[in-house]
Amino acid sequence: EDQVTQSPEALRLQEGESSSLNCSYTVSGLRGLFWYRQDPGKGPEFLFTLYSAGEEKEKERLKATLTKKESFLHITAPKPEDSATYLCAVQAIPKDSSYKLIFGSGTRLLVRP
Amino acid sequence: DSGVTQTPKHLITATGQRVTLRCSPRSGDLSVYWYQQSLDQGLQFLIQYYNGEERAKGNILERFSAQQFPDLHSELNLSSLELGDSALYFCASSVGRGPPTDTQYFGPGTRLTVL
Fold first, then answer.
1. Are A100 and B45 an interchain contact pair (Cβ–Cβ within 8 Å)?
2. Chain B contacts of A87, Cβ < 8 Å?
3. What does the buried/exposed string (b/e) look like for A67-81 if buried means 16 or more CB atoms within 10 Å of the residue's CB?
4. Looking at CB atoms within 10 Å, which of A20, A24, A90, A104 has the fewest?
5. Residue B98 predicted with pLDDT over 80
6. Is the pLDDT at B101 greater than 80, yes or no?
7. Which of B46, B102, B113 to mutate to test the interface with A (most CBs of A within 10 A)?
8. Cβ contact (<8 Å) for A46 and B58?
9. pLDDT band per the 50, 70, 90 thresholds, residue A29
10. CA A87, CA A47: separation in Å to the nearest integer?
11. Average pLDDT estimate for B106-110
């Protein structure tokens, strides 16, 4: 069964304190791995898509990397406005023509000033 | 703003009732997905439509149904509501033709409260 596990569940950082969020996955065949940011009561906001092991993408203070079993979201010198829940999702090679996403439970990040 | 719109933002209703949630995808997107997010389950895929046709079903209850209209907007119908149906319901859309254009963009959601 396709599965996504994120760790830690929650992370508290001081402003400027860099860290990484982990997303490990088990899928029959990976089509793509997605990172989203979600603020309370809002819809997930797309951050990155990674398609193959070794791929990296960056956006401001965020950098996402991908291996064959997991993905990391590195946050460099975070600011309070980076506080949110970060969701990882995988899209498996479809057996039913679906491009549905399978989500992890997320990491709640709190960055203190 | 993702370009995906959902109405209403909030819905409060009673057990046993029926409600309809509406979603308009981004301009040019042919696929619409519905997801349910509850505190204990996280984001769960319900159903996908592509250009008016049902493409895939996930953990969608028989009391729930959806459709996509010729103008590509979609509606999710929830009937015989139970307390456990209280959740955030998200719609997402994508072009639907495969990478790199199949990124899903989410709407702001509809918060359903069943009393």
1. yes
2. 43
3. eeebbbbebeebeee
4. A20
5. no
6. no
7. B102
8. no
9. confident
10. 10
11. 97
pLDDT of residue A95: 67
* Contact criterion met (CB < 8 Å) for A96 and B108: no
User: Residue type at A54?
Assistant: G
Q: B42 in contact with A at a CB cutoff of 8 Å?
A: yes
Over residues B17-55, the pLDDT tens digits come to: 999 999 999 999 999 999 999 987 789 999 999 999 998
Rounded CA gap, B24 and B4, in Å? Answer: 6
Task: Mention every residue, 6+ apart, whose C-beta is less than 8 A from residue A36.
Answer: A44, A45, A46, A47, A86, A87, A88, A89, B106
The first and second tokens of residue B34, run together, are: 């519905």
Which of B29, B31, B104 should one mutate to test binding to chain A, selecting the residue with the greatest count of A CBs within 10 A? B104
Nearest CA in chain A to B47: A100
Residue of higher predicted confidence among B1 and A24: A24
Tell me the three state secondary structure of residue B54: strand
CA distance B109 to chain A (A): 6
- CA A105 to chain B, closest CA, distance in angstroms equals 6
**Average pLDDT score, chain A:** 93
Residue B1: band (very low, low, confident or very high) from pLDDT cuts 50, 70, 90: confident
Token readout for B83 is 């307390």
Cβ of A49 within 8 Å of Cβ of B103? The answer is yes
Least CB–CB distance from A44: residue in B45, B56, B106: B106
